[in-house]
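Hi P.,

Sorry for the delay on this. The queue was packed all week, but I finally got your sequence through. Input first:
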Amino acid sequence: MNFIKTVINSNKLSGIIDIPNELKNKVVEVIILPLADAPENKNIRKLKGALKKYKNPELINLEKEAWQKAVEEKHEHS
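Then the structure:
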C-alpha cells in the first residue's frame, strides 16, 4: 500500500482541514493513506477552491510572463 508521511507546520493545513486548537501553530506529522472501498462521505472536505481566498484577479494578466521575469531578475547579474 502506498502512503505519504510528512512533517509540516499546522498553519499550512488551515483552510484544508479543521485543526484542533492544541495543534495550531505547531509542527505536526501528516500521514495520508488510501481509503479502500469507502462509501461516499459527505463530511470529507474537497480541495477544489481551497486556495480561492488567495486569488487576485489583478495579477492574472501577469501570470504568463511571471516565471520568465523571475528567472531574468534572479540571473541578470550572473
